[in-house]
Structure formats: structure tokens, C-alpha cells
């Protein structure tokens, strides 16, 4: 028996609507479980949908393959037919994580999943559990966004707990020198600690050098994206991990920027609710020492949010460039939304009007005051933008990266006379140059006129 075409289309639409609603519920449950918040708190940050889009359309893809077939039996779930079914695995791991302490290992999490009432099968001692460990490792990475997990391995590379390195970074054998079974027995924080040098390096020398030379001032005129693009030919690469934010490669002039500021905002506001195991992962990637961290009043997430204003939001030409960059990002992401907060931070002008009568952007002012570093807040708790920022106070972690970017910008020289007029990276030098040129030009014109008058008088006397 065949249904009429119209009825068949209606049933298909209803079925699709049910699937979308189930997917939305799983997304919402994951975010609520991760940040331990109520649904009403999520509605205040619609940009988190872009993070969920990234997980579905990018991060979850390898889990659909046959190599990860064992994980579905552990949570009493059939092999996924839709990519949205992968939320079930992430939710199962996250539920176990919430009840555990930071010293837990990936093997401990595996055992908790087996002991849960949802598990259909028990893996024997001789069965290869490598891809189960890797799938658990993947959820830890996606829940913290500190690194990108490697989930696909070729025949000549043994499966292991490794991450995808930032572009331009050379791989070492340090992360693969131990068997996966040995690494999974270690505490989670020990596992992630080995990845820190690959993403942050040793910034202690850079920070000491910056303090010694007193070059800890960050100038908006040198760091806005218009100047970097026009004089330095810098291009932007949007990345999915926090540790890659503001990483600059001078060889190809590519600047990496994190594309999920809403994720940072939720961490700032609800970070204390995140389970201790995931917090320990983020702590292992903090470039500050424990002593500096105890004295610091600014979080890494606050630094990231403020950096969008420094690079884009405080300069009109940079805001226009931001619109173009966001359009490129939209076109490069199939079926993924762009973080709404990214648009607000990069494209909105905060202050309008003159010195005596100012009004402020309502959207930016509607964000909670906690998302801004305390060093850049007014008494009322609103954002206070500056032309000059202190790297140690406002950017204690990202300061070394911004200093290096500023040094690169300062080394670029104008090649045309019009570029000399546009180049206001050093206001004192700009005003001095044009004042000397103007005064010298007027003096030369007056001298020429005086000479012409003298010549005319000489001719008249003859």
C-alpha cells in the first residue's frame, strides 16, 4: 500500500522534526551536564550552539567508523546511524566523570563504564581496548577544548593517546614512547601534562625577558587586525582549541584565533561547577606557574574574550575586516553556525558619541561583567577599553604571544607615501614626522616666496 505523495512528505517532515528535537535535547543535556547549569542559563548564551555544531559535524565523525564499534555495547546503544547518536557516548562518559576526582585515570573511567547498569558487554582481558581508551580521551578533549584528540591512525602507526599538533609544530616521539595501556593507567592530569610543551612551550623565559626590558605595554594601534593585515600581510586561521589562540607563525604570517568565545564565557561564569577531572585538564595547560596563578586575578578565558576587542572591536577598519573574516568562516563551515558572541565581540562598536556625551552598545553591555578581566572594568562592572594595555595585568598568559605579535608589527615598514599617512602605530612618531614635514614645508614655501620677491625687486630696480 502506497501513501499519497503529500502524506508521505508530511510524515517525512514530522520524522525529521522529531529527530531534530531529540538531537537538541541531547545537546542541551550535554551542555547542562558539562557546566552543571539549568536550561535557562543556556538560553542566555545561544552561541554555544556553534560548539555543539562543531562536535557533531567535525569531532564526532571518526566515532561512526567500525574501529570504535566496541564503545556502543558499553552504553547499551546500537551502532550509530546518525551522527547525532554520538551524543550518547559523550553523555555516558561525562556522567561518570562528574562523580570522580581529578586523580582518576582513563582506565578507571573505562571500568566505571563497564560497571554501570547500561553496559551490555564486558570486555575480556585479552581484548584490545585501545579505541575505547581513545574514545574516552576524546570526550575529555572535547569537554575542555584544550587540544584536539587524534582518533584516526594508519596501519603503520599504533593507536595511542595523542593530540593533533598546531600547524607548524614538529612532532616528536615523546607522546608515543609509552604503550597506550600504560598511559591509561596514569592519572588524567599526568596524561595531559605531557602535551603542554607542544602547545604552550616554555613561556617563563619570554615573561622574564618582557619584565626585564619593561616592554609589557600592548598598543591597540599596533595590534589591531587592520594594521596587521595592511602592513604585515597577516592572515587569520580560526581554530577549535583554546591553547592555539593567538599563536602566530611569522614564516607564513598566519595568526590562529579561537572561534568559540561563548565556551569561554560559560567557563568564566560557571567554571566552578565543572567537574574536577575536566578542571584538572585545563589546569595542566595553564602556562602560569602555581605561584603566579595564585596571585593572578584574570583567567585565561577572560584574556581570550578581551583579545577580540583588542584585535577587532576598538578600530573601525578592523571591524569591517572582521565582517569579511566571519563571512569566510561561515562559508568554510558546512552546516555549522558561527558563534553569535564572536560576531558581537569583533563587529560591534562599544562607545558612540563625543567625550562629553557618550552612549554604549547595549548588546555588549548586556553580557555579564564577569567575562571581562577585572583590570578592564569600570566601578559599575562594565567594560573599559584602553588604547594601551599592560601585558602582565590584563594578559598574564597571552601577553608573551601578543608581545611577539606586536614586535612583528613594529618591524614592518611603510612602502608608500600614503602608507606613511595611514601608519599610526606610533602616534608620537607620526605626529612628529608630519609636524616637521608641515613646518618645514611651510618654511620652504615662505623662503621661496621671499626669494621670488627679492628677484622681482632686483629686476625692477634695474
Question: What can you see in these coordinates?
Answer:
- This protein has two domains: about 10-200, no CATH class; about 205-410, no CATH class.
- Helices cover about 55% and strands about 5% of the residues.
- The chain has helices at about 5-35, 40-45, 50-60, 70-75, 85-100, 105-115, 130-145, 180-185, 190-195, 195-200, 205-215, 220-225, 225-230, 260-270, 275-285, 290-295, 300-315, 315-330, 340-345, 360-365, 390-395, 400-410, 415-420, 425-460, and strands spanning about 150, 165, 215-220, 235-240, 250, 255-260, 350-355, 360, 390.
- Helix 14 (about 260-270) runs antiparallel to helix 17 (about 300-315) and helix 17 crosses helix 19 (about 340-345).
- The longest helix is centred in the last third of the chain and has 35 residues, at about 425-460.
- The protein starts with a helix and ends with a helix.
- About 35% of the residues are buried.
- Keywords: Membrane, Transmembrane, Transmembrane helix.
- This is Transcription factor domain-containing protein.
Amino acid at each position: 500500500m502506497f501513501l499519497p505523495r503529500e502524506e508521505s512528505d508530511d510524515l517525512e517532515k514530522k520524522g525529521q522534526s522529531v529527530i531534530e528535537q531529540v538531537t537538541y535535547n541531547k545537546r542541551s543535556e550535554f551542555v547542562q551536564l558539562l557546566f552543571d547549569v539549568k536550561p535557562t542559563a543556556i538560553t542566555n548564551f545561544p552561541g554555544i550552539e556553534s560548539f555543539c555544531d562543531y562536535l557533531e559535524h567535525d569531532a564526532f565523525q571518526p566515532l561512526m567508523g567500525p574501529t570504535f564499534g566496541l564503545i556502543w555495547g558499553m552504553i547499551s546503544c546500537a551502532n550509530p546511524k546518525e551522527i547525532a547518536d554520538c551524543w550518547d557516548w559523550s553523555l555516558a562518559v561525562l556522567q561518570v566523570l562528574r562523580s570522580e576526582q581529578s586523580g582518576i585515570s582513563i582506565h578507571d573511567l573505562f571500568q566505571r563504564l563497564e560497571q554501570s547498569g547500561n553496559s551490555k558487554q564486558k570486555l575480556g582481558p585479552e581484548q584490545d581496548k585501545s579505541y575505547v581508551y581513545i574514545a574516552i580521551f576524546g570526550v575529555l578533549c572535547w569537554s575542555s577544548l584544550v587540544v584536539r584528540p587524534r582518533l584516526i591512525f594508519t596501519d603503520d602507526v599504533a593507536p595511542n593517546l595523542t593530540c593533533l599538533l598546531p600547524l607548524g609544530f614538529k612532532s616528536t616521539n615523546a607522546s608515543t614512547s609509552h604503550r597506550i595501556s600504560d598511559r591509561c593507567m596514569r592519572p588524567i592530569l599526568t596524561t595531559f601534562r605531557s602535551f603542554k610543551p607542544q602547545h604552550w612551550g616554555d613561556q617563563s623565559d619570554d615573561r622574564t625577558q618582557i619584565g626585564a626590558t619593561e616592554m609589557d605595554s600592548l598598543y591597540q594601534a599596533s595590534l589591531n587586525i587592520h594594521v596587521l593585515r595592511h602592513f604585515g600581510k597577516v592572515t587569520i586561521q580560526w581554530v577549535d582549541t583554546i591553547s592555539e589562540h593567538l599563536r602566530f607563525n611569522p614564516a607564513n604570517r598566519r595568526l590562529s584565533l579561537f572561534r568559540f568565545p561563548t565556551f569561554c564565557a560559560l567557563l568564566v561564569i560557571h567554571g566552578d561547577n565543572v567537574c574536577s577531572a575536566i578542571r584538572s585538564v585545563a589546569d595542566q595547560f595553564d602556562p602560569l606557574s602555581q605561584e603566579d596563578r595564585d596571585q593572578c586575578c584574570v583567567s585565561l578565558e577572560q584574556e581570550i574574550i578581551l583579545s577580540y576587542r583588542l584585535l577587532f572591536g576598538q578600530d573601525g577598519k578592523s571591524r569591517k575586516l572582521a565582517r569579511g573574516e566571519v563571512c569566510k568562516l561561515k562559508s568554510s563551515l558546512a552546516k555549522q553556525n558561527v558563534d553569535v558572541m564572536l560576531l558581537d565581540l569583533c563587529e560591534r562598536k562599544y562607545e558612540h558619541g563625543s567625550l562629553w556625551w557618550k552612549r554604549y552598545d547595549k548588546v555588549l553591555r548586556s553580557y555579564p561583567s564577569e567575562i571581562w578581566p577585572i583590570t578592564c572594568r569600570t566601578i559599575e562592572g562594565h567594560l573599559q577599553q584602553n588604547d594601551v594595555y599592560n601585558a602582565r595585568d590584563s594578559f598574564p598568559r597571552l601577553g608573551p604571544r601578543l608581545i611577539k605579535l606586536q614586535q612583528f608589527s613594529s618591524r614592518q615598514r611603510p612602502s608608500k607615501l600614503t602608507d606613511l599617512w595611514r601608519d599610526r602605530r606610533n602616534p608620537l612618531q607620526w605626529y612628529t614626522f608630519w609636524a616637521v614635514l608641515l613646518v618645514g614645508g611651510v618654511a620652504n614655501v615662505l623662503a621661496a616666496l621671499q626669494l621670488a620677491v627679492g628677484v622681482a625687486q632686483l629686476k625692477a630696480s634695474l
